[in-house]
Amino acid sequence: MTQAPVTERRATPVPSAGRRRTRRRLWLVAAVLVGALVFLLVEGLGSSLDYFDTVDQALAHRGTLGTSTFRLEGVVVPGSIRRTAVGTDFAVSEGAARVEVHNTGSPPELFQQNIPVVVVGHFAGAPSALFVSNQVMVKHSATYIAAHPGRVRAPNGSVR
Asked: Which of 147, 139, 145 is nearest to 158 (CA)?
């Protein structure tokens, strides 16, 4: 009887317990780093977006907005601008909706009636239509003016 040739099998090396622990730690560190990166991206992108509510939206959600700070967009109502000792009072509107704004500080140089502005602040209270603001933003680039030629004109007709 002849014997069949014996083939040699090489056993795959079993990683030691220390190597397994190191490998698990590396995967854990990688997972934590990926999670931190995702968190930073979501938070960074979310906070860098500039959202604002229009006058209609803000009035509709006044109860839920309460006195939290947000950005309000509207057009400065003609004849509503009044300089005060601490800033400027004026009204912004969108269609028939109107909000009175009490602003502390100096508005930007381009600030005037009949132009769109974004004001940062909050309602004085849930039932109130008084918006207390500490910042007025007016920014119109040349491309904005070209796209909306009738929006940013001084009373004398010149473009600002």
From this structure: 145
